[in-house]
Design goal:
The protein has about 160 residues and is α+β, with helices and mostly antiparallel strands. It has one domain: Aminopeptidase, CATH 3.40.630. It contains five helices and seven strands. A seven-stranded mixed beta sheet has the order 1-2-3-4-5-7-6, with helices on both faces. Strand 3 and strand 4 form a beta hairpin. The longest helix has 15 residues. The chain is globular and about 40 Å long. It starts with a helix and ends with a strand.
Length: about 160
């Protein structure tokens, strides 16, 4: 029955992303962030040897992705996004867990990311996943309606 659920799109399937996913990732990124990345930018990242990307599919539809870049045993999560219709269902938690295991298996010792200090759901996800704040970047994100730039929290998790 599990294969039938996957076929009918009732479950989320996690797997490695490839260049054939660039358009779908770019579309999801554009819906998820103030400044989306183009299909060409995504494709360039996907072909880099030190960039690792997992995707979440429901049926044949991309519903999430997480992308990191490795450098000398440390990695940075470049982006993570889940389609609005799938948020709150554990998709991000599943993707992030797989991604962290994959990076640890590749020898990555620590992983970093930046998150908007006002993004409560993302901060909760990262906290539950063992990340801790190690820095702040004031006015890092583009100016909002109040004329101020959002502060980015720099988070870290050791994998070994």
């Amino acid at each position: 029955m599990d294969w039938l659920d996957r076929l009918l799109g009732r479950t989320v399937v996690l797997s490695e992303a490839g260049t054939g996913d660039a358009a779908a990732i770019a579309a999801l990124h554009a819906k998820s962030f103030q400044r989306g990345w183009s299909e060409q930018e995504i494709e360039r990242l996907l072909i880099e040897r030190n960039v690792f990307t997992q995707r979440a599919l429901r049926g044949r539809k991309l519903v999430g992705f997480v992308m990191s870049r490795d450098a000398a045993g440390e990695a940075e999560i470049l982006s993570i996004a889940v389609h609005a219709s799938q948020r709150g269902r554990g998709v991000a938690r599943q993707m992030l867990g797989l991604h962290l295991r994959r990076l640890a298996g590749l020898g990555v010792r620590a992983i970093f990311l930046e998150v908007d200090e006002n993004n409560t759901p993302a901060k909760r996800l990262y906290s539950r996943s063992g990340f801790r704040e190690v820095g702040r970047r004031e006015a890092y994100y583009g100016r909002g309606p109040d004329g101020k730039g959002g502060t980015a929290l720099v988070l870290r998790r050791d994998l070994v």
